[in-house]
Amino acid sequence: MAARERLTAISKHLDHRPLATPRSPIGNSPPNNPPFPSTRSLYTENKPKMSTQPEHPTLLIPGPIEFDDAVLQSMSHYSESHVGPAFVATFGETLSMLRKLFQTTDTASQPFVLSGSGTLGWDLVAANLAEPGDDVLVLHTGYFADSFAACFETYGAKPTQLKAPIGSRPQLPEIEKALGEKKYKILTVTHVDTSTGVLSELKALSELVHRVSPETLLIVDGVCSVGSENIEFDNWKLDGVITASQKGIGCPAGLSISMYSGRAMDVFKSRKTPPGSYFASMKNWLPIMQNYEAKKPSYFATPSPQLIHALNTSLTQILSRPLSDRFAAHQEASQKIKKAIADLGLKQLATDPADQANGMTAIYLPEGVKAPELLPNLFKKGVVFAGGLHKEIAAKYIRFGHMGVSVTDPKRNDIDKAIKALETGLSDVGYQKA
Amino acid sequence: MAARERLTAISKHLDHRPLATPRSPIGNSPPNNPPFPSTRSLYTENKPKMSTQPEHPTLLIPGPIEFDDAVLQSMSHYSESHVGPAFVATFGETLSMLRKLFQTTDTASQPFVLSGSGTLGWDLVAANLAEPGDDVLVLHTGYFADSFAACFETYGAKPTQLKAPIGSRPQLPEIEKALGEKKYKILTVTHVDTSTGVLSELKALSELVHRVSPETLLIVDGVCSVGSENIEFDNWKLDGVITASQKGIGCPAGLSISMYSGRAMDVFKSRKTPPGSYFASMKNWLPIMQNYEAKKPSYFATPSPQLIHALNTSLTQILSRPLSDRFAAHQEASQKIKKAIADLGLKQLATDPADQANGMTAIYLPEGVKAPELLPNLFKKGVVFAGGLHKEIAAKYIRFGHMGVSVTDPKRNDIDKAIKALETGLSDVGYQKA
């Protein structure tokens, strides 16, 4: 096939399917999932041409995010044996690069990359680091703490949730008090809760935990923070950070990615009971991860070579520049967005600026504006935002994700376009700043 | 970027990494993973040019397999919201197509597609259909029955293995006897054991189970058979078939795919204890799968839109022709390969022709020929075979996978090339037919 025909074939395949008719959320549906108009031409107007991707609405939800061309192309890597030397080298290199992303040089730290999703990270923690009957303190800043607690219960651990009002986070004195009341094997914190955009402070939290309950493992749910927020695994003495591929790391969904301290691995190795999960068993995966990183072929379950190639490409790009620049770029974009939102007279769920994530913003809708009106209007302008997710207030807010290439690639104009779309979109649906 | 430059960029990215130096298998490593030479030009000689994929050695292991260009291109689909109507439609359509692949029209049948691997299917079965203390009969035809049994133990079920000599399978009278000795909640059978190439007969087995132990659920491990062997889910009254994306279905690895009968789902729904896994909990996933198939957005954990697009493309291709043609093509290629192997004076692990898989062949090496000599020789000829996996005899055999486009795409010459490579390769390493 000639080059031109091939590209036509690709474009044809990647072409838009007919967009669907309005749907009502039901059951476990995320609320406020609006009907999208099927108009295509409208959103291409103010969009700079991407290189190898066909034109499409800019995805600015808190994950999955927009992907770099080279990352997406890596997804089409030709088939390789999962135990052949070429792929083993790629996987091993990827695991080693994760150490840099998490800022850990302690050789006892252990990375894991499994086929799955961010959720699988909870199973890794709950089925391997907790044992039945263990007490776990779950700091609650939104939807995802409830789920992490449910995961612990599945494997027989006893989670206690410390909740904060929506838009806030549990404060250090309360946490100190809770840690004094019971001996907790594990404390979990959601670094950025995707449902609220609330950012938790890890350094001071870790100092507190190490001071008042030094045996407690500090586990971070970094699904919506790794790659967009600074995480100093060694310096902050973290015991585990779980994440996924499709948010700040900028790789398509399909991978559970995590890092554990030597201390956490020792807790795992000294379990009295076998791990509670088979697919998420560190007993099954630890030798595999160690072998891959030592560039030795190894098999427990078949990894996805294409996703690992994409992750490798994404990490190579991320690590080609200082991480501090990356986090500064996210902070800068976030400040710009938060200022624009304040200028529009809108409020965020996260009230205290210190509690506001740098990779996403959860925005209360103004009185009278409904997400099923606003979101399709934004879509027409070529911008995809997400509806609310926190069950108590889902209909009252929208979410704007600003991670990865949308903030780090100077060739894109994603953030300015989204701010502009939000301004005119709100006006279109009748909102006027008071 | 112009079309030509874009393709150059893609090719460059997909280019070969330097192939690694010899490695010894250790720990959990699959034995006989040979050192591969780093010579590139050698394997391109007798290979017809593929369309959009760069030249690469033809992967003929029992999964992952070679992929069709359009399937691989779907992996690079631009980013979409996992709850947006376009992707929800694609996922829903994919689930519906799976019903056709499994030949089930019973609306009570339930498909699941999760991010993970074939192994995750064992967790789905063991954590949802078995309860702690339940007896399970595991028919053993190789490596994978041991692992499935270990998975059941993880979730508290009590597996009993019924083993056959290597290269054979448990016979119906033995199975009938075993079913008479205990009340088994579940019987599992590996349709094709990837470690031995032994094919199990499902129809007669199902008739036996329904006759002598009608309450026992019949669960098929079809990881190495779905897409390459005929499976009539409804006609054969199966209760569950688990599989993965990267073998007969011809989609890159990263998905756990399975189908359960209404009867199996009723057993799940009448559990006395909660499911033993969180990530593999049908309680968490059932409403999501039902919503996606009804084209309603739904969220438990983020699926991989790119992998789902690739699966959609692959299923669309498979279902565009009669399934019977597909299975006949696999049978025909398999017969050709098995005849060539016999002509070479070689023996298969599976002794009885009725027990030989149609999508792979496990071949005993002749006396004096070692896999670490033969496999790199084949690699130089552009063909990748796998070493042995069954722990008792791993060094004594090799495996040849012949599934998917390698047997169904007339433009490829994969099978003939592989047979020729095997003939000359054996000769190169000193083998002469007695």
From TrEMBL, chains A, B:
Q: EC annotation?
A: 2.6.1.44
Biological process terms from the Gene Ontology for this record are: glycine biosynthetic process, by transamination of glyoxylate
InterPro entries in the cross-refs: Aminotrans_V_dom, PyrdxlP-dep_Trfase, PyrdxlP-dep_Trfase_major, PyrdxlP-dep_Trfase_small, SP_NH2Trfase/AEP_transaminase
- Describe the location of the Aminotransferase class V domain by residue ranges: 77-390
Top-level taxonomic group: Eukaryota
Q: Which family does it belong to?
A: Belongs to the class-V pyridoxal-phosphate-dependent aminotransferase family.
* Protein name, as recorded: alanine--glyoxylate transaminase
Q: Specify the species.
A: Glarea lozoyensis (strain ATCC 20868 / MF5171)
